[in-house]
Amino acid sequence: MEIETVEIRDNCNIEVKGISFNKRSKYFYASIENTGDADCYLDIEIPDVIVAGEKQTFSMDGVEFLGSKNKKDFKIKAELTEEDFADNENVKVKVYYGERKDSLVKLFEGIFALTIKSTDYLFYSLLVVIIILIILILWKRRKEKEKNRAA
Known about the structure:
Elements: E1 14-22, E2 27-34, E3 40-51, E4 54-59, E5 64-66, E6 71-77, H1 82-87, E7 90-98, E8 106-117, H2 121-150
Parallel strand pairs: 1-8
Antiparallel strand pairs: 1-2, 2-6, 3-4, 3-5, 3-7, 7-8
């Protein structure tokens, strides 16, 4: 019997910067940076999250792309309650990654302190912009009415 070996070259390198959970959107956000010169594909799992006293695994809906030298926050949907946060101060993160979408040959595993976020800055930014636009529209109408009265 003859045994052959296959060498797989994969120059993809990543660094997991941290993990957070947004209470409002109900998503985990895994902050990942591609530190290598090659583009990467990755799939993220968050195993052993305690929800209502039972362990659950949360993962992305599919494989995602991360360009070389780029950083991105990847979203993972999860339903956690206030009571669950005390049981999950630290969470385990597994990232399967590689240069080819159908061959994620590398694995990163780590335990991170879970950061809880309750505000969504995008929502508040849009709200401020809308309020400013309403004020400008009302101010312009008022100026036009004053101009028409003067005429």
